UniProtKB/TrEMBL annotation:
Pfam families per the UniProt record, alphabetical: PTS_EIIA_2
GO molecular function: protein kinase activator activity; transferase activity
Source organism: Chelatococcus asaccharovorans
PANTHER family, alphabetized: NITROGEN REGULATORY PROTEIN, PTS SYSTEM FRUCTOSE-LIKE EIIA COMPONENT-RELATED
Name assigned to this protein: Phosphotransferase IIA-like nitrogen-regulatory protein PtsN
Length: 177
């Protein structure tokens, strides 16, 4: 017959396993990788390369990484196919050596930019996502979280009408119904 300690250890182990299952089964939340200070309400860019360069510089400053390395990784990813997902939104993303956690930067543009999107609609909402190379599952989960949020017409309308970066963040971080 198991001792009280063995029973206690088993129940803690079972509880821990259940918690891991529960956590792993949950979709990633935008607030896990996007911080309020990483939201820009009216970013100016004339074209896609300039937009990616500006976003790379901002991200590099926040992450203390090389802006050219980030820009190069983003341009290489874009060469595979546009990350313009339609309805005026884009999700440029790349894996970056030297990172330890996911990082996002969201920008609403002052004027639409041709992003060679799947529907040829110029982009006004952009979410840059950078990830460490060894965290593929997390990368996909973060991409899915932001894509789910931006797939909502209501969300996109709210983002385009928001009055401040704080309001943009609140809309993005809000859990979809």
């Amino acid at each position: 017959m198991p001792t009280r300690h063995e029973l206690s250890t088993r129940s803690v182990t079972t509880a821990a396993k259940e918690q891991v299952k529960h956590t792993m089964g949950q979709p990633m939340k935008i607030a896990q990788f996007l911080k309020p200070e990483d939201v820009i309400s009216d970013l100016a860019a004339a074209n896609k390369p300039q937009l990616l360069t500006v976003l790379s510089r901002i991200a590099a400053g926040r992450l203390k990484l090389d802006a050219d390395a980030i820009s190069s990784a983003l341009m290489q990813r874009e060469a595979l196919g546009s990350t313009g997902i339609g309805d005026g939104t884009a999700l440029p993303h790349a894996t970056i050596t030297g990172m330890t956690a996911p990082f996002a930067l969201f920008a609403r543009l002052q004027r639409p930019v041709d992003f060679e999107s799947v529907d040829d609609v110029p982009v006004t909402l952009v979410c840059l996502l950078l990830m460490p190379p060894e965290r593929n599952a997390e990368h996909l989960s973060a991409l899915a979280a932001i894509a789910r949020r931006l797939s909502s017409k209501d969300c996109r309308t709210q983002l385009r009408n928001a009055k401040s970066a704080d309001a943009l963040y609140a809309i993005l971080a809000q859990e979809a119904p």
